[in-house]
Amino acid sequence: MMQTRSMGALGALLLILGATMSASGQEPAAGAVPVPSQKPDEAPATPPKPAEAPATASGEDQAPEAAVPADEADAPGTPPPPPPAETVPVPEAAPPHGAAPSPAPAPVPTAPEPALPPAAGSPDASAPPQPAPAYVSPEKARTEPEPDAPEASPATVTPAESAEAAAAIEDATACEAELTKRGAEFEVGPSLSEGACGVLRPVELKRFSSGVAVLGQTKMLCRAALALDVWVGEAVVPAAKAELGGASVEAVGGGSTYVCRDRASENGISEHGRGSAVDVAAVALKGGRRIVVEPKAPGTDEDRFLAEIRRAACGPFKTVLGPGTDADHADHLHLDIAARNNGSLYCR
Ligand SMILES: [Zn+2]
Fold this sequence. Notes:
The chain is of the alpha+beta class. It has a domain of 169 residues: CATH 3.30.1380. 25% of the residues lie in helices and 13% in strands. β5, α4 and β6 form a beta-alpha-beta unit. α3 packs parallel to α4. The longest helix is centred in the middle third of the chain and has 24 residues. The chain binds zinc ion (ZN). Zinc ion binds next to β7.
């Protein structure tokens, strides 16, 4: 079933890629280039599509898989849509922050499950009954739904997890008070949990305390929003004044915040899946000028400006990546507050 979910996300990405290609005119424009056919004969046979893939315009299903961006290569503003509701696993009492589920011997009332419908196509359908585990992995949850399982039963949370969750909530509310005191405008949404991903009390910033607007929507941990607010007020605004001829900053942002996805280069999920990361794609100045994050000609004012705000982000944020780090970060700054093993910063 993991495969199905991947195919669904892949299908969505292909759709987006196809739409982008169409919008950017990479397909043969009418009359511009005499192309005999949009579907060359040597095109490989189209593999069977997943059932949920909608009918697509011609050519979209021929996009090569290699074009799918990996890891942090998040196309700004186009996060992959969530998987269909029926494939979203609902783990029992998922701990906050994706903390490793403790195999606590919770006394889950395990009545025999004669009514459990055999999952269609499940290889486990004929397996002998097993005692219900305290934690159901997402894979298992997809193939062996337990409709009778109570949601977030307190019996499945250990005292240590309860204390940790309480501390996290306390920290989040303290952070929200600090953000309010600074003068930032924001809303706090309901906590998110999908598989290993999730955000406790996600913050949607409306305006930074410095008066700067927010490009795009944000969903992130309050501590990430706080770091972003500090960085915009203490680094981006003064750097624009200093390096861009006294310019005033109108808005900052334009990249992904919370996105549930795997990290390609390492094991585990991306910091975006924990709500601790924010991508910044652009800085808009009053008067209409827009500084896009990308490699600039050395020595230009935009090059100096981007170098300065990138350097200054290392501190409020623990990880700073961007153009020059690798191909995935060529068009945005990736900023996250994830604690490193030894507390050191990771700024490349
Ligand atoms: Zn990122």
